[in-house]
Amino acid sequence: MTFLRPTLLALTSAALLGYSTHSAADVAPQLKKNADILQTILQTAFSNTEQARLTSLQSSYLAGQGLLFQANSKLGASHIFQFNDARVPVAPPAPLPGGQFEFELDSEQLTIITEQAEEMAELAQQQFRQHHRLFEQQRAIERELRDAEREKRDLEFSQTLTKLDKEQQQELTQLQEKTKQLQQKLAEAAKQAEQSREQLAQQRAKRQAEQQQQTAALVKTVGEQFSQVLCDYGASLRQLPENEHVTLQLNSRSDAGRYYWVIKKADINQCMTGKIKAADLLAKAKRYQF
User: Fold this and answer.
1) 144, 182 contact by CB (below 8 A)
2) Residue spans per domain, the chain
3) Helices 265-272 and 166-233 sit at what angle, rounded to 10 degrees?
4) What are phi and psi of 199, to 5 degrees?
5) 12 DSSP 8-state letter
6) Radius of gyration, alpha carbons of the chain
7) How are strands ordered across the β-sheet holding 286-289?
8) Are 26 and 63 in contact (CB under 8 A)?
């Protein structure tokens, strides 16, 4: 038994080494070069298009799934982005430590983020000041109205006990008129507050619509650029297995999630040979948000 243990260990190690060597051989050494070439082409294509300018483009490979390209968008606000095609392949996870995609912000991005943050902060302060002013105005009118109504009730109660003299009757008449005017002022203040809320809601809806339009334009342009590059330069993916895919993952700095375009290698080949156009290649892509 003492003799067999080293032998068994050696056989096990050899088997594991053989398995590891076989697994590594499944991935063609040239595939990394193919991915680097396509990544450079994509970087150039996206950097030359202002509407679809992406940053921090990276690539990775998942055996059995294909190449994954990840990039960041400049849009940082929340957007709505949905596709109706439910038959989509599961997005390959990003092979980064901790499962998170790290953003590398250049000076231009930092400037944009800073300007957006300052604009949002100023808008929030304006909204707060406006609401606070209207709130304080309503409270002041309500306090004055309560005081006038209390004095009016006291005089009206006294009137039930004894007849008011001329001065008291005049005071009661004035309080009744004052109460009426304050009620009108309070109703007007409440109306202004409601109009202010509606105006702010309209402004938020307008900003959201603008952001959604920007996102839609970005997504449209990115998809068109991606499919066009694959159609024109798909030959650089010679080592990618025919049954795998090329995926673009667009990361957002907001809570909107990530956007995906998943394109089959077989469809890329059809586009390269002229059987379909870049627009057809994009139409065949699986697009979704996660």
Assistant:
1) yes
2) 28-113+210-289, 117-209
3) 70
4) -65, -45
5) H
6) 34
7) 55-62, 66-72, 245-251, 258-264, 286-289
8) yes
**Phi, psi for residue 66 in degrees, rounded to 5:** 130, -160
**Average of per-residue pLDDT across 144-173:** 84
Rounded to the nearest 5°, which phi and psi values hold at 201?
-65, -40
Query: Which residue type is seen at 234?
Result: G
Best CA proximity match to 286, nearest among 55, 76, 88: 88
- CA distances (Å), 58 to each of 94, 237, 271, in order? 10, 16, 24
CA angle at 19 for the pair 34 and 237, rounded to the nearest 5°: 10
The DSSP string of 120-145 is HHHHHHHHHHHHHHHHHHHHHHHHHH
User: What three-state secondary structure class fits 160?
Assistant: helix
Q: Mind listing the pLDDT tens digit for each residue in 15-65?
A: 433 433 334 445 678 899 999 999 999 988 888 776 667 888 899 999 889
pLDDT in the model for residue 17: 39
- Write out the two tokens for 112: 């944009």
